[in-house]
Give the backbone structure.
Amino acid sequence: MNHRIQPVVRRLKAIQNVGIASAVQYWLARRRRPNPNLGNGNGYETVTLTPRNARFPLYARIGSSDIEVYRQIFTEREYECIDDIKDVRRIIDCGANVGYASAYFLSRHPDASVIAIEPDMDNFALLQKNLASYGDRVHMIHAGVWSHDTDLSLRRTGEGNEWSISVEESGPNEHPDIRAIGLTEVFNRAGTDDIDILKIDIEGSEKIVFSQNYELWLPRTRNIVMELHGLECEVAVDLALKNRPHHKVHPNEELTVYRME
């Protein structure tokens, strides 16, 4: 395709995915600059976005990475690769950020409920606002996902990168930021034997999550959609799944999908 035509095609697809009004909202939000005299004390003000693939309005912080996350999930529809999964009832969203993926899943699967887990307090506050309208279909947990119960410390890569906040197990002389929650406990809270979609985007912690105790929850998982952060993480996941029949695909640059057979 001609390199001059490609940007036009991408814009047309984005408009088709989110609708004209939401495309304009997104375009304006991307070009706005933070106003330090407004916002919630962190220099952020929020804008409202209404993509056609979300049942309720969503909110984004100007000057944060929210707009980029919104672009991936709604204008590019990176989770379209698992739209074909049928009879979805239970979803777990690990690394839920501000709730855009959860909102997409809840809107796509009207009979489903979601457990959304996010470690960063500012992200979690906006997650609560973005998912409040879904009522009791959502259970939100302020924690870091890990392989076992422990204390965690947050690691931030820089201002404006709210989507790439990672966690590490706290050292003996370090004051922890948050508690961890193991996926076995999350599955038990779901109150069902099986999870239809397990979404994982936890900035490298997947290496830990798939290193131990996975045998307690992995047999209860139908589909996993994951952003892998490096070869070590991919190897850890592949080793955990080696004795479980599955089909592994890379539908786009960001995601890996594991469908259990």
The CA atoms of residues 115 and 186 lie 8 Å apart.
